[in-house]
Amino acid sequence: MKNGFWARVRLAGMAIVISVLLVLPLAGCGGAGSTTIPINLTNASDVGSLHIELVYDPAIIEVTAVKAGKLAQNAVVDSNISAPGRAIIGIVSSNGIAGTGVVASVSFKAKAKTGASALTLENVEAYSAEKLQDIMTRVSAGQYNAQSKKVDAPSITF
Prior knowledge:
The protein has one helix and ten strands; from the N terminus they run αββββββββββ. It is mostly beta strands. The chain has a single domain, classed as Immunoglobulin-like. Strands 1, 2, 3, 4, 5, 6, 7, 8, 9 and 10 form a ten-stranded mixed sheet that branches. It is elongated. The chain starts with a helix and ends with a strand.
């Protein structure tokens, strides 16, 4: 019985990965001189899949790539950065993500020398790896200041 359950979990995870790969084109690599926006998780436990949309001001920054953070090293991370002002990120882990830290790093190039861009997380959805149930989240926005080049990271709390 237990082996059947884990087989269904792995199949569900694989179905999600295939869906993400079919729907979202793969992102390119970040260029030289890029800066990163870490997306942090706080108190994550058994997170099997995560959907995140990072919204920013495209007049201030241009997103160039998305990479897995330390918490998602053993997960599949895919993204769609083709629409200016919105980076869509999908993360799937059959083992479940747990802990506090960076789940994704978003590379960007500054387009302005002054001004600021809010770094808002929208449409965040998280599901349990073991129980396949939704997990309640709370998000906090971040900000990028073009003049000081300071990044305040957005975060997701469980």
